[in-house]
Amino acid sequence: MVRYMVRIQIMAQALKNVIAQSLECPVCLNTFTDPKILSCSHTYCKTCLDNLLECHGSDQMLRCPVCRAETKVPNQDVSKLPANLALKPLIEDVKNQYQFCTNCKSEDKPRAVVYCQDCGKYLCIPCHNIHSQWPDFISHEVLAMSEILSGKVSVRRYRKCRKHPKEDEECFCSNCRRFACFRCVVMEHTNKGHLVIEAAVYESNHVKSIKDLKSKADKKRSCFQKYINFIDEQKERVSNVQKQCTDDINKAYEESVWQLTEKKELLIGEVKGRTKRVEKELDEMKKSAQEHITHLTTIADLITTRTKIPSDMDALATHDTVCQDLQEAFNKEDPDYKQPRQVSKKGKSVNLKRNVGMDELGLGKIVNAVAILQNIALPTQNSMSAMVGTPDDRMAVGSWKGGVDIFSVDGQHQQTVFKDVKIHGLGFLSDDRYVILDRSNNIALYTLEYTKLNIMFETLSTAEGGLANLTVDGDHQIYVSYWTAQKIHVFSSAGGKAIREILCYGYKPEQITSYNEYLIITSADTIRLIDKQGVVKYKLTKLGDDLYPAMSQGNTILIASLNHDVGSISIDDYTYELKHVQNLVMDYKIEKPSEEWYYLQQYRSGEIAFCTSDRLYIFD
């Protein structure tokens, strides 16, 4: 009779475990709360479905994590999906059912007060007292039944095989994605292609995978949070510009006559209009980054906040789906700080130009101005001969008297190198080696440590070709333009003779700049964009001004227009077709040098450098 009762209790406990597992949500692995049915008949907690729907943004279609079938969610409101009414009474019965001690041998089992996670047993008060006194059991994790019933903690169940209730599922088949007991493994998972491992090994790998995913999610969230903080900084700077402009306008208004009220309001409106458009662009970038953080957080929480290992096929399928969604989120490129920086510059450049000294009464007009950051005297006066941006975002200025001076973005003179080399052209190969053209038209290559390499180039002498200039493209090709010969030689970085020649018909190639698949050629007041066969594609002339081009970080062309008579420059942005985009610097007065030789370049961080023979100007 006793054996019969024991068998009945074992069968009842096994049935109870099966029912309890059937009432678990495949997403959160807890007993269903407010269960909702999808069109594919799979059931999930309402909260879990809300989280899954949020991961898909504004899409009203919800993809089932188990079978991948789609269910339309009316107005993105999960509460409108049908409830699983059949499960609700079972859930209540499981919640309200007493748990009896599974350690006592008597037929009349008392109610359990604790559950030992390590032993996998429910214990009454006497059994708990005995259990807590044994040294081997002191470190076991024991949960109070009150905390389990309240939902504060979850029980780590020991899996029993559904086909063989007395057997533990000690194995895991990686191909079938199922836990199995040893008997099931022998009968069903010994065929070729089945990879069976210990369940404990799978659980260990699973926990490690969760930790790795959480670590990656934390790093990705941190990355986008820094991006959002950067956007906020740019917005604050733009807002400060708006405030400063508004203050300037108000001051000019107070100094002028009251009849200018309408003009004042128009100007303030224009400032707000320009800066608000920039702020709107920055807000859109910030919103996109915040949505990605929310997306990462929601998916990561679905995986990383669970305390149990998924045991059945639906839960495993759900886990695989959510992990795949998180992996897709990881594949999103990290934020590009260059974009908000460039957008914010449009707002930071807004400025009021007063009508000072003019007969016409007025407050002035709103212009895009670029602030001067630095006006630096070069260490070697009246000898600047070349300038190029370095690979580490500094500016290298060469001197025909000898040496290359290196300047940081904030205008600090950091070092002088190649003091004994008389520079007339500078460039960098894509592996960061220096390319130097000296006053005798000789080319030399140097390492990052300023060691000269034993590579020779057969260039034209000054007697044959006249003065020369140099540029380097992204394919390790070196272009040397000769003023008198009116031609361009193209060299490989391996040295030797020119691999080809480009003729400049009817114009002198004074300065040469590489621009994607083209070359920009400067000849006094004219700029030509030619292809690498020498065909002129576009041309720009400004009579009375000398023009100096540079490739911008935004892949456009910057052109400085220099008026020698008044000693002022204007810098404008152009498309590759040499069509005007916007003015960046307008009529900025420079100190007129004794030698008329100039260069224009841009730092990678966006600042513009304009160099005369004796001074370096840096504009923000």
Automatic annotation (TrEMBL):
<keyword id="KW-0597">Phosphoprotein</keyword>
<dbReference type="InterPro" id="IPR017907">
    <property type="entry name" value="Znf_RING_CS"/>
</dbReference>
<dbReference type="InterPro" id="IPR027370">
    <property type="entry name" value="Znf-RING_euk"/>
</dbReference>
<dbReference type="GO" id="GO:0061630">
    <property type="term" value="F:ubiquitin protein ligase activity"/>
</dbReference>
<keyword id="KW-0479">Metal-binding</keyword>
<dbReference type="InterPro" id="IPR001841">
    <property type="entry name" value="Znf_RING"/>
</dbReference>
<dbReference type="GO" id="GO:0008270">
    <property type="term" value="F:zinc ion binding"/>
</dbReference>
<dbReference type="InterPro" id="IPR047153">
    <property type="entry name" value="TRIM45/56/19-like"/>
</dbReference>
<dbReference type="Pfam" id="PF13445">
    <property type="entry name" value="zf-RING_UBOX"/>
</dbReference>
<feature type="domain" description="B box-type">
    <location>
        <begin position="156"/>
        <end position="199"/>
    </location>
</feature>
<dbReference type="InterPro" id="IPR011042">
    <property type="entry name" value="6-blade_b-propeller_TolB-like"/>
</dbReference>
<protein>
    <submittedName>
        <fullName>Uncharacterized protein</fullName>
    </submittedName>
</protein>
<feature type="domain" description="B box-type">
    <location>
        <begin position="96"/>
        <end position="145"/>
    </location>
</feature>
<dbReference type="InterPro" id="IPR013083">
    <property type="entry name" value="Znf_RING/FYVE/PHD"/>
</dbReference>
<keyword id="KW-0862">Zinc</keyword>
<dbReference type="GO" id="GO:0005654">
    <property type="term" value="C:nucleoplasm"/>
</dbReference>
<feature type="domain" description="RING-type">
    <location>
        <begin position="25"/>
        <end position="68"/>
    </location>
</feature>
<keyword id="KW-0863">Zinc-finger</keyword>
<dbReference type="InterPro" id="IPR000315">
    <property type="entry name" value="Znf_B-box"/>
</dbReference>
